[in-house]
């Protein structure tokens, strides 16, 4: 069965770029094939745009900026809410597209549509609250204050692990602020982005305000980064590419937001029930088959409960079902491609060669070449890749620690600083860890931490800026200060 036959609305499956409100072929005839990672079958093809076509998307966005910024905030809100309603109405089709191109199980894909749509609703409303300030004047007979103005065209480069929500978290904020966007999705998962474009058009978002360009990543991103008409770049992806884009944006001094990799510690205190903590750690590790920037990458367990924790973790992990995400009752889908499987295997080999113990994870049981069975390693040390690198795979590494000071040092022993988890009921330990952990987000006794109202983002080499929350829209706004002088006597100035 083809992808479009599996949708109740087949027009959501588009195999063109979307520029200036038009579905666009590649002028040079270059194409890419998109595969289902669970089966290896081709799902469809996408055009690779030529340089001039990407520049044309910037022309279109710049032209659209004039009208889009001139709308009242409540008018932009209405359009975005119409988009939100369509995302909700087509949730099942959007989830099907996502599962087929990304691999995640259908319940997770439905959850992501819900999550992605929630940013559209949030920012639709936030756009009405981009308040300036009144500043008590130090200048005689003057009124001082600030206005918030949209920065201009925003380029958004997004990854494959959350093919819909990573777009809406950026695009809704930018569009609510009055900025048109040019989205460059990951080549593995373009169809979710294109379905978003189809629904944006139906929602009455004007031509040129939401564009999706497809092409060779390095080529497209250079055009977007070097063009002075693009005023903001927001990127979610690896730290390696983030560094490169930051450098490229220096030429035009753009506003840059980066949501990069993570290497989350999951700290379990000695007072915890090993079963409760282990079940939470399994939930924090295996979402999206471990391909999640928030995934618990280093599990640090107090030595007094280490063995009991490992036993509980292994038994919970053994209950996870691995398979094609489109089928019912699957917990873990495939990895995104064969290279990801090879990387996971090399991380496990590296750990074993340095003395780690393999508690569970028999790759002979994998249901296909792109699958990696959940794997548990103990005795993980800081020299191992499984500790140092974001493994982005269903590989869990556990390390025992002795006291709070030691675990703080261990947890901070990374260039990353996105998210950390702490499990303990001791309020002094909670406060000490909360303050000492060098992370942008710390979740205490909770696996769930994200959603529209929170400032999502990392410190150190995990990124710049915050998405979501009341500050997420600021990434797309300039503050203009004004001084109105010679007003005569201004009472209260
Ligand atoms: P990636 O390789 O950095 O790719 C992300 C995006 O960058 C894709 O659109 C990709 O395009 C593009 N890209 C790749 N090489 C490029 C280059 N040389 N120049 C310009 N653009 C380039 O990351 P990924 O493997 O897709 O995603 C996984 C990473 O994203 C992980 O590190 C994860 O932690 C991070 N992530 C972070 C967050 C967060 O909120 N902090 C959320 C999700 C994921 P092509 O696909 O066309 O190559």
UniProtKB/TrEMBL annotation:
Belongs to the aldehyde dehydrogenase family. GO terms for molecular function: succinate-semialdehyde dehydrogenase (NAD+) activity. Pfam families: Aldedh. Coiled coil: none annotated. CDD domains: ALDH_F5_SSADH_GabD. It comes from Halomonas stenophila. This is Aspartate-semialdehyde dehydrogenase. Residues 23-481 form the Aldehyde dehydrogenase domain.
């Amino acid at each position: 069965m083809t992808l479009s036959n599996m949708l109740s609305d087949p027009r959501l499956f588009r195999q063109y770029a979307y520029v200036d409100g038009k579905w666009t072929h590649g002028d040079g005839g270059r194409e890419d094939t998109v595969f289902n990672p669970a089966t290896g079958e081709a799902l469809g093809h996408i055009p690779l745009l030529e340089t001039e076509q990407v520049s044309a998307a910037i022309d279109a966005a710049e032209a659209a900026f004039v009208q889009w910024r001139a709308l009242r905030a409540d008018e932009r809100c209405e359009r975005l809410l119409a988009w939100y309603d369509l995302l909700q109405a087509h949730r099942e089709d959007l989830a099907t597209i996502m599962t087929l191109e990304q691999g995640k199980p259908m319940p997770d894909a439905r959850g992501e549509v819900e999550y992605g749509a929630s940013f559209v609703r949030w920012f639709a409303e936030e756009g009405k609250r981009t308040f300036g300030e009144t500043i008590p004047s130090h200048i005689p007979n003057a009124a001082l204050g600030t206005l918030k103005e949209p920065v201009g065209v925003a380029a958004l480069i997004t990854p494959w692990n959350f093919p819909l929500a990573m777009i809406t978290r950026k695009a809704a904020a930018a569009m609510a602020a009055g900025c048109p966007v040019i989205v460059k999705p990951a080549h593995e998962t373009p169809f979710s982005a294109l379905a978003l474009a189809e629904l944006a058009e139906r929602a009455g978002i004007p031509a040129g305000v939401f564009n999706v360009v497809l092409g060779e990543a390095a080529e497209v991103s250079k055009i977007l980064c070097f063009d002075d008409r693009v005023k903001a770049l927001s990127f979610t992806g690896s730290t390696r590419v983030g560094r490169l884009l930051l450098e490229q944006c220096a030429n035009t001094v753009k506003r840059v937001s980066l949501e990069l990799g993570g290497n989350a510690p999951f700290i379990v205190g000695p007072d915890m029930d090993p079963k409760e903590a282990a079940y939470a750690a399994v939930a924090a590790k295996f979402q999206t088959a471990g391909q999640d920037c928030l995934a618990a990458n280093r599990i640090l367990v107090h030595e007094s409960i280490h063995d009991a924790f490992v036993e509980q973790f292994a038994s919970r992990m053994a209950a996870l079902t691995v398979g094609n995400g489109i089928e019912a009752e699957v917990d873990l889908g495939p990895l995104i491609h064969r290279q990801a499987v090879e990387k996971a295997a090399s991380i496990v080999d590296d750990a074993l060669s340095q003395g780690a113990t393999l508690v569970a994870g028999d790759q002979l049981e994998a249901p296909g070449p792109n699958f990696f069975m959940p794997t548990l390693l103990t005795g993980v040390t800081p020299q191992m890749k499984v500790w140092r690198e974001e493994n982005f795979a269903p590989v869990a590494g556990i390390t025992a620690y002795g006291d709070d000071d030691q675990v703080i040092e261990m947890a901070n022993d990374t260039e990353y600083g996105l998210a950390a988890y702490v499990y303990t009921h001791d309020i002094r330990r909670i406060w000490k860890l909360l303050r000492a952990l060098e992370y942008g987000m710390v979740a205490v006794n909770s696996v769930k931490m994200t959603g529209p109202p929170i400032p999502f983002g990392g410190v150190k080499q995990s990124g710049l800026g915050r998405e979501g929350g009341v500050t997420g829209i600021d990434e797309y706004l300039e503050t203009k200060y004004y001084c109105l002088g010679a007003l005569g006597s201004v009472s209260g100035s």
